[in-house]
Amino acid sequence: MSETTEAEVSPTAEWERSTIALTMEGRIRRDRHDVDAWRVLLAEAADHTPAQFRPVFEAAVSAMPLSAPLWMRWVEAELRACEAEQVEAIFELCLLRCPQLPLWQLFLNFIKGVKLVGLDAASARSQLLPALELTLEAVGADPVAGPLWQVRT
Question: Which pLDDT does position 7 carry in this prediction?
Protein backbone atom coordinates (compact mmCIF):
# COMPACT_ATOMS: atom_id res chain seq x y z
CA MET A 1 0.00 0.00 0.00
CA SER A 2 1.44 3.38 -0.97
CA GLU A 3 0.46 6.64 0.62
CA THR A 4 -0.40 9.84 -1.19
CA THR A 5 0.05 13.28 0.30
CA GLU A 6 -2.86 15.66 0.78
CA ALA A 7 -1.38 18.02 -1.85
CA GLU A 8 -1.47 15.22 -4.44
CA VAL A 9 -5.17 14.56 -3.81
CA SER A 10 -6.44 18.05 -3.00
CA PRO A 11 -5.29 20.30 -5.84
CA THR A 12 -5.04 24.06 -5.53
CA ALA A 13 -8.02 24.73 -7.81
CA GLU A 14 -10.66 23.90 -5.23
CA TRP A 15 -14.37 23.36 -5.27
CA GLU A 16 -16.58 22.65 -2.31
CA ARG A 17 -16.27 18.91 -2.03
CA SER A 18 -19.08 16.72 -0.79
CA THR A 19 -18.65 14.64 2.33
CA ILE A 20 -18.29 11.59 0.12
CA ALA A 21 -15.52 13.22 -1.93
CA LEU A 22 -13.68 14.18 1.25
CA THR A 23 -13.98 10.60 2.47
CA MET A 24 -12.62 9.34 -0.87
CA GLU A 25 -9.67 11.75 -0.61
CA GLY A 26 -8.89 10.28 2.80
CA ARG A 27 -8.99 6.77 1.37
CA ILE A 28 -6.69 7.82 -1.47
CA ARG A 29 -4.22 9.37 0.98
CA ARG A 30 -4.05 5.97 2.69
CA ASP A 31 -3.91 3.96 -0.57
CA ARG A 32 -3.26 5.85 -3.80
CA HIS A 33 -4.31 2.77 -5.79
CA ASP A 34 -7.86 2.69 -4.39
CA VAL A 35 -9.68 2.47 -7.72
CA ASP A 36 -13.16 2.83 -6.22
CA ALA A 37 -12.20 5.97 -4.30
CA TRP A 38 -10.68 7.53 -7.43
CA ARG A 39 -13.80 6.64 -9.45
CA VAL A 40 -16.07 8.46 -7.00
CA LEU A 41 -13.76 11.46 -6.62
CA LEU A 42 -13.28 11.82 -10.38
CA ALA A 43 -17.03 11.64 -10.99
CA GLU A 44 -17.52 14.60 -8.67
CA ALA A 45 -14.50 16.49 -10.04
CA ALA A 46 -15.74 16.10 -13.63
CA ASP A 47 -18.82 18.16 -12.75
CA HIS A 48 -16.62 21.22 -12.26
CA THR A 49 -14.48 23.41 -14.49
CA PRO A 50 -11.43 22.05 -16.30
CA ALA A 51 -9.15 24.13 -14.06
CA GLN A 52 -10.71 22.37 -11.09
CA PHE A 53 -10.89 18.81 -12.44
CA ARG A 54 -7.55 18.60 -14.29
CA PRO A 55 -5.33 18.43 -11.18
CA VAL A 56 -7.48 15.60 -9.81
CA PHE A 57 -7.25 13.64 -13.06
CA GLU A 58 -3.50 14.32 -13.23
CA ALA A 59 -3.09 12.89 -9.73
CA ALA A 60 -5.20 9.85 -10.64
CA VAL A 61 -3.25 8.97 -13.79
CA SER A 62 0.00 9.63 -11.93
CA ALA A 63 -1.05 7.01 -9.39
CA MET A 64 -2.31 4.55 -12.03
CA PRO A 65 -0.83 5.41 -15.43
CA LEU A 66 -1.88 2.11 -17.02
CA SER A 67 -5.56 2.47 -16.17
CA ALA A 68 -7.40 2.99 -19.45
CA PRO A 69 -10.70 3.77 -17.67
CA LEU A 70 -9.05 6.70 -15.84
CA TRP A 71 -7.64 8.14 -19.06
CA MET A 72 -11.00 7.66 -20.75
CA ARG A 73 -12.86 9.48 -17.97
CA TRP A 74 -10.43 12.38 -18.31
CA VAL A 75 -10.93 12.54 -22.10
CA GLU A 76 -14.70 12.43 -21.65
CA ALA A 77 -14.59 15.26 -19.07
CA GLU A 78 -12.53 17.39 -21.45
CA LEU A 79 -14.91 16.63 -24.31
CA ARG A 80 -17.90 17.72 -22.20
CA ALA A 81 -15.99 20.96 -21.55
CA CYS A 82 -15.38 21.36 -25.33
CA GLU A 83 -11.60 21.26 -24.84
CA ALA A 84 -10.49 19.50 -28.05
CA GLU A 85 -6.87 20.68 -27.79
CA GLN A 86 -6.62 19.28 -24.27
CA VAL A 87 -8.11 15.99 -25.49
CA GLU A 88 -5.37 15.77 -28.13
CA ALA A 89 -2.73 16.40 -25.46
CA ILE A 90 -4.18 13.64 -23.27
CA PHE A 91 -4.15 11.19 -26.17
CA GLU A 92 -0.50 12.08 -26.80
CA LEU A 93 0.23 11.16 -23.18
CA CYS A 94 -1.77 7.98 -22.89
CA LEU A 95 -2.11 6.11 -26.18
CA LEU A 96 1.37 4.66 -26.38
CA ARG A 97 1.82 4.45 -22.61
CA CYS A 98 -1.44 2.57 -22.12
CA PRO A 99 -2.24 0.84 -25.44
CA GLN A 100 -5.66 -0.49 -24.56
CA LEU A 101 -8.27 -1.05 -27.27
CA PRO A 102 -10.99 1.08 -25.62
CA LEU A 103 -8.61 4.06 -25.61
CA TRP A 104 -7.82 3.58 -29.28
CA GLN A 105 -11.54 3.32 -30.08
CA LEU A 106 -12.15 6.57 -28.19
CA PHE A 107 -9.25 8.17 -30.09
CA LEU A 108 -10.67 7.19 -33.48
CA ASN A 109 -14.14 8.33 -32.44
CA PHE A 110 -12.63 11.68 -31.40
CA ILE A 111 -10.89 12.03 -34.75
CA LYS A 112 -14.06 11.19 -36.67
CA GLY A 113 -16.45 13.13 -34.45
CA VAL A 114 -14.40 16.26 -33.77
CA LYS A 115 -11.41 16.62 -36.05
CA LEU A 116 -13.15 15.65 -39.31
CA VAL A 117 -16.33 17.65 -38.83
CA GLY A 118 -16.84 20.13 -41.64
CA LEU A 119 -13.97 18.86 -43.80
CA ASP A 120 -14.41 17.84 -47.41
CA ALA A 121 -13.80 14.17 -48.22
CA ALA A 122 -10.18 14.62 -49.37
CA SER A 123 -9.22 16.64 -46.29
CA ALA A 124 -11.01 14.18 -44.01
CA ARG A 125 -9.08 11.28 -45.55
CA SER A 126 -5.78 13.12 -45.13
CA GLN A 127 -6.60 13.68 -41.43
CA LEU A 128 -7.92 10.17 -40.81
CA LEU A 129 -5.14 8.23 -42.51
CA PRO A 130 -2.35 9.13 -40.02
CA ALA A 131 -4.67 8.28 -37.11
CA LEU A 132 -5.47 4.89 -38.63
CA GLU A 133 -1.78 4.20 -39.34
CA LEU A 134 -0.85 5.07 -35.75
CA THR A 135 -3.60 2.80 -34.47
CA LEU A 136 -2.48 -0.04 -36.74
CA GLU A 137 1.10 0.30 -35.47
CA ALA A 138 -0.09 0.16 -31.87
CA VAL A 139 -2.70 -2.61 -31.96
CA GLY A 140 -1.80 -4.43 -35.15
CA ALA A 141 -4.06 -7.07 -36.53
CA ASP A 142 -5.25 -8.31 -33.13
CA PRO A 143 -8.55 -10.15 -33.80
CA VAL A 144 -10.07 -8.42 -30.77
CA ALA A 145 -9.39 -5.08 -32.50
CA GLY A 146 -11.89 -5.83 -35.27
CA PRO A 147 -14.33 -3.06 -34.26
CA LEU A 148 -11.54 -0.48 -34.63
CA TRP A 149 -11.34 -1.18 -38.34
CA GLN A 150 -15.03 -0.64 -39.02
CA VAL A 151 -14.41 3.03 -39.77
CA ARG A 152 -16.68 5.10 -41.98
CA THR A 153 -16.04 8.71 -42.92
Answer: 45
